[in-house]
Design goal:
Four copies of one chain form a homotetramer. By secondary structure, chain A is α+β, with helices and mostly antiparallel strands. Chain A contains three helices and seven strands. In chain A, strands 1, 2, 3, 4, 5, 6 and 7 form a seven-stranded antiparallel sheet that branches.
Chain lengths: 151, 151, 151, 151
């Protein structure tokens, strides 16, 4: 874990769960959104400001693997980092975990990613603007470096 | 039941339920939205067209009373009618019921209403435009008449 | 404001909003749930423990009045307090507000309440058990006192 | 298109959309659930009955690619078929499309899949029981045959 990873905590509420007694699978995409927006806020990228520039960063792809269920009232952690970045797309990787007082290591619940493209409000695909690309790229490099040194 | 009442059927899915094994209370507002939009479509009021006129009909108040729970896979019926209509607000009344093959009468699940005002996209309160008021008023009268004759 | 009022902050995410550009009306019931469960946690009533006793506290009624819209990325505050308490029902009152750096007073967005009854897992209505009633009653009295002294 | 494909229609409601003016990405997993449960109902597999056998078929993986946005009031079609089936997992494939009166071919909105495993209520992984496997396998073969003949 390092500066390139953003960690946010969420409390599971009833609204997040389903009749199976666990968190509904689509709800994890909410948690990913929370992780992603807090990561971006942390590097000065407030989504609202991005939109004011007339740019939207919609999800073009998502993939989640469900390893263990979260339940009502669980406190979970969303670990988010920039997985990759090109001129046109940005991929965020997520690890959603549950920390428990009586266990030394957190339990991995969900692993996955979302891919985002930059488009204008009219729906035209554009290069990710410099003002967004640069801070994301800095994070991306931090991830690479930390991977190389094995931390 | 008469022409003034619109009835729509919905199937309860897992996403609608919570860990209590029943439909999450806020989900019934989804069912009300479905009932209301189908009632409006039935009298030629497509919400999208209303919005194209620069008008929004947001919910200014809602009240629901929960009598019995709906469960996963239940087929429920949303009965919607115009409860009252003034120059500035429209109230829709809802009865959400579950029909069951082995029971002569449907079970009442939820009873409630939503109140809507007309506002411009800039957020200014306006009179409900003629094109929306007239068809709603016609329905409202049909409700009154049917009440008087006891049907 | 006093000890009887619990205040929780929530950040509005995209998932909470609708195509009208504002928070979808049913989403405020999520915020109420967050406020209510944090108030209860604050007085030692963890909902999960209540359920382990075989008791559920479902919503039997809800009412919300929408005064002003919350938007994406807004930081909102849910103020929750016990509005009334009988042997069989508990009512929670909510005020959802938005604080803004450039304004001296927060903007009231939504005002409302939920009423809860105690039922067994089999669905039978019961008196609210002592272990739940007592801490809620203590809060309720605190609310009354503060009202009398005008704070 | 053939017997192996199940097609369900859904109307997009306000609750499904977000402040970007389009359907929120996680909402498509709701549509997939609708498609999947209707496909299963069509071959006599009512999820509720499966659960009564003490078996759950949770989502262990999902992947969606977003090609074009659905908007409020769109009528969309969810095309679902069994993509693959092993003793332990079943994969459903989805194509979500929008039909428009003025266009000869529907627009592809979302393509994706969900993978499901069979587990007991206690959470233990088991082989998919015969009563579920057989009807799914029949559908799977129908898909293969239709692919071979190019329809």
């Amino acid at each position: 874990m390092n500066d390139a990873h953003h960690r946010t905590r969420c409390r599971v509420i009833y609204a997040d769960t389903d009749a199976g007694g666990v968190v509904y699978h689509a709800t994890y995409l909410r948690y990913c959104e929370i992780g992603r927006s807090e990561l971006m806020r942390g590097i000065g990228l407030v989504y609202q400001h991005i939109e004011e520039q007339g740019i939207i960063l919609p999800v073009t792809e998502c993939r989640l693997r469900f390893k263990a269920p979260a339940r009502y009232d669980d406190m979970i952690t969303v670990d988010t980092h920039v997985g990759s970045l090109t001129g046109f797309t940005c991929r965020f990787n997520y690890r959603i975990e549950r920390e428990q007082a009586d266990q030394p290591k957190p339990t991995l619940l969900v692993k996955g990613f979302t891919v985002h493209a930059a488009i204008t409000k009219a729906g035209r695909l554009i290069r990710i603007p410099e003002s967004i690309y640069t801070p994301l790229h800095r994070l991306c490099q931090a991830t690479d470096n930390s991977s190389q040194t094995g931390t």
